[in-house]
Amino acid sequence: MSTTPQPAGRHVAVEPPPPQGFWNEFRDAVSPRTVILIVGVLFLQLSFVLSYVGAFHSPAPSQISIAVVAPEQVSARLVPQLNALDGAPLQATAVADEATARQQILDDTSSAALIVNPAGNTDTLLVASGGGISVSSAVQTVLTQVEAAQQRTLTVQDLVPIESGDGRGLTGFYLVTGWIVGGYLVAALLGVSAGARPATTRRAIFRVGALVPYAILSGLGGALIVDQVLGALTGHFAALAGLGALLVFAAGAVTMAFQVMFGVLGIGLTVLVFVVLGNPSAGGAYQAQLLPGFWQFLGVVLPNGAGTDTIRRIVYFDGAGIGGNLAVIAAWAVVGAVVAIVGARFHYHRALAVEYPRPAAAQSELSGVQARG
Fold this sequence. Notes:
By secondary structure, the protein is α/β, with parallel strands linked by helices. The chain has 2 domains: 64-158; 167-355, no CATH class. The chain contains 13 helices and 5 strands. The radius of gyration is 29 Å and the shape is elongated.
């Protein structure tokens, strides 16, 4: 058997022989860390199925607010009847007149209004499809059945129709989804290229700061696409761009915080929060009033739902009631940034302590001083 001579002075690395035995070789090929990651992926996959199917498999209206305009003796009977329907699909309230009911719809404090005609058998339902087609359709379905049981008919007027380019009112949801995906992808990319945990506090600040120009460009780009390019949501460019920048920064900051706290597993937690839990609860295909209670709650506290609802309010209700949503998104942004920076500082000092441990005598003396103090 011939061998190839190696140049003098060169050392050739020789791989150690593989471990003997099936299980030993298997454990060498598939490390425990790999197994943990695979289990994590399986958990995310099944959680995705559970969350989306759980949210959408049986949508049912729940406590949809509706104003009722009718003579006092009629409303005194009708309002309790509507509130006592099986499953509590409606939350009816008597109002003084049609003008008040219309204004409540335009302010998005009521989702619909039933105008009872005491002189005939045809009543009027006022809706706002801009606030969610699934909500207006659900109210119409419920009240059509109620009216039919009383030998009455219903006509529908849409006070806030969706824009012609906003198919089924889903543009805002997809816009928010794109912004959030961009935010956590750029943060994950920074973590992969430069390490999940920044080496120093200053680098953590630089990394968080790098999100700002990206978020601004993302907000401007998304608003430009849905307004000037596609004409899907028109006339609100500045407001949408500002909201987009805030959403992108919030998603990126939270992703950085998760990476600082949990390393590469932080990316999985980001997917869990924003994709598995955030998307089905955001009120896209079905608004919160048609989702189960758990997803209704998530829609209020996660940036996905807060952002989607804010876009609807900006485009169709002149920005009425967006303060709470903006506070939710800003809270995620601030907490994410603070945790990312403080966490990086903590890991930096812990790494220093491991690399440069204090001498035992000095440590003993310090412990004694702390005990006496």
